[in-house]
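Intended use. Records like the one below are meant for learning the mapping from a protein sequence to its folded structure. Do not use them to infer anything beyond what is encoded.
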Amino acid sequence: MSEPLEFTVTLYPEPVLRRIAEEVTTFDDDLGRTVAAMYHLMFDSQGVGLAAPQVSLRRRILVMNEEGDKEKPELNITLINPRIVERTGDKALMEEGCLSFPSIFAEIARPENCVVEAMDVEGQPLRLELTGFISRVLQHEYDHLEGVLLVDRMSPADRVRNKVALEEMIEDYKEQRAQV
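Structure written out for the chain above:
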């Protein structure tokens, strides 16, 4: 039996966050372990969603639990190779955070509803119609698979409000890279 995987959250401005994730082609025990480790990290980090690029994996995998509650696994949604095929409803503004941007929040406008086609962890196709908060979570995590980040969706006012924190993240990243 293989050792369980352990991940840490990849922080902005790590370049892997900007790369488009690649399709998953193998549905095996390794994929199952990856998904389990992603859920573990998401719950430990008090998140409601996590995409594979946020753990430095360039794979089209995302996990969600709209309450961020590991005691409610029935709310877990695992999507492999997701594709948003429809976005409907009014664009609603809501404050979003991101595990890759700790302590940074911004008002983001997103359509209220979306339809996603994907595969489950066994490779079986699925289609979900999502509304409200979980639709927002999906759209946020899907952005990560496309290399789109919270900072890209921020209004100019939110960019100004978060300028110092973003600059500190960039400086921290540069310092860490210099030590390698």
